[in-house]
Design goal:
6-stranded mixed beta sheet; alpha+beta; 39% helix
């Protein structure tokens, strides 16, 4: 029996006891034998419920702690950490691809493949036996930024090495800097129990019976959703230096995954996507007009107010460059003094809070006949959770594009996004710029 059902049963039994007590007091009589038996039965059941609830709550707490805790590779000694770091550094993406194409694996790449296979097995995610499996920590550095020092493994330097390829300019990835919560290397689906009512008490007379205030519970659920990236690489590029192919292809795949994950976390809600902040129907919404309108200082403050009214503490604002520019050219008051803009030039703060800016915040939203509208978000970003299962699965296909001298690579990851507390966010999504 679930905890909520046990609390409901407890409430009904206490109500029955109160009714029995009131009947005896009103009629000024003693308990009958049947009433005594019923009283003892209820008393025993209440004690049993208390024990069951305590056990279930402990089990749920331990399950959540186990799911949230990422496995540690080896012992925690500094020498083993150093050895692990050296293994990751020696890992060659190019060699892994070549080994997948030939079917003969060895060296560090084979060890990493076996390790990642164990990760996926623990997570309950099925992967192809013919794929290249990459542990999560071997790819981690590329998921947040271009590898190396000052982009030494990517960007212009890598593009020059592989023959003049100049990478496209990419949006900033900002969510990690805002303190999102991460659950890595999960095992199976994850349900987090969530109290959905506030604690309650009430004043009463000296001898009055206290009213039962049973808490209600809900849950936040995470289940793996496949995030995939695809690239065709010429066999000539595969024959280039190890550093070139490792840097360019790994950076391309990792950046595409990171960008798509961030877009889903901010807006997500499309086909097969997790539901992000903007698409979540339970977040607070601050509207400007029937078809959108210009951002004002009052709306900036309203976003903060909506979050705090729900007892959350916001940490930062998040928006795109178009809204940032509008904030820098809009006066706080309609008749304000020139220069008294909502966002001061060069400032990284809005309304006393940090403000992150990325083009991953959409500028193509619609409202009625309003189009090309932008969003401004305020909230506690630790209440945005990103979950992952296992590492990365790389499928190498040297056959489909063989006549054109191409090798196809598909990178798969298994992730989910959810809001632990939607009310900890407020969104204005009808801003004209």
């Amino acid at each position: 029996m679930k905890i909520k059902a046990l609390h409901e049963e407890k409430g009904r039994l206490i109500d029955e006891l109160n009714a029995l007590q009131n009947s005896i007091n009103t009629e000024e009589r003693s308990m009958s034998e049947d009433e005594k038996k019923r009283f003892n039965d209820i008393d025993a059941r209440l004690e049993s419920i208390g024990s069951e609830v305590e056990t279930l709550e402990k089990l749920q707490k331990r399950a959540a702690e186990k799911a949230a805790a990422a496995p540690v590779y080896g012992a925690s000694s500094s020498s083993e950490k150093k050895e692990r770091s050296e293994m990751v550094a020696k890992y060659s993406f190019k060699r892994a691809v070549e080994q997948a194409a030939t079917g003969h694996r060895d060296g560090v790449e084979l060890e990493m493949h076996k390790e990642a296979a164990a990760e996926f097995q623990r997570s309950g995610v099925s992967v192809s036996a013919h794929s290249v499996l990459i542990p999560s920590d071997a790819f981690k550095r590329d998921m947040t930024a271009t590898g190396g020092t000052n982009g030494s493994e990517g960007g212009v330097n890598v593009a020059t090495e592989v023959g003049g390829i100049i990478d496209v300019l990419l949006p900033n990835t900002v969510l990690d800097g805002l303190g999102v919560t991460r659950f890595d290397n999960l095992t199976g689906n994850l349900d987090l129990p969530k109290a959905s009512t506030q604690p309650a008490a009430g004043f009463n007379t000296e001898n009055g019976t206290a009213a039962e205030k049973s808490p209600a519970f809900s849950k936040v659920s995470f289940n793996p959703k496949r995030l995939a990236s695809y690239i065709q690489v010429s066999n000539q590029l595969l024959n280039q230096s190890s550093n070139s192919i490792d840097a360019y292809v790994r950076n391309y795949l990792a950046q595409s995954m990171a960008q798509e994950l961030e877009k889903a976390a901010i807006k997500g809600g499309g086909s097969n996507e997790p539901t992000g902040i903007i698409a979540n129907t339970d977040v607070n919404v601050v509207s400007i007009g029937a078809t959108g309108g210009a951002i004002t200082w009052a709306k900036v403050v309203d976003l903060m107010k909506e979050v705090e009214v729900d007892n959350a503490i916001g940490q930062a604002y998040l928006t795109n460059p178009k809204v940032k520019a509008a904030l820098q050219t809009t006066a706080r008051q309609a008749s304000g003094v020139e220069g008294n803009f909502i966002l001061q030039s060069g400032a990284g703060e809005l309304n006393g809070y940090p403000m992150a800016v990325t083009t991953n915040v959409p500028s193509d939203l619609t409202k009625s006949t309003g189009t090309d509208l932008s969003a401004l978000i305020f909230g506690d970003f630790s209440k945005l959770a990103i979950a992952s299962w296992g590492g990365m699965e790389l499928t190498v296909d040297p056959y489909s594009g063989a006549t054109a001298g191409l090798t196809n690579m598909i990178l798969n990851a298994y992730i989910d996004v959810n809001l632990l507390h939607p009310e900890a966010f407020a969104v204005c999504k009808d801003i004209t710029t």
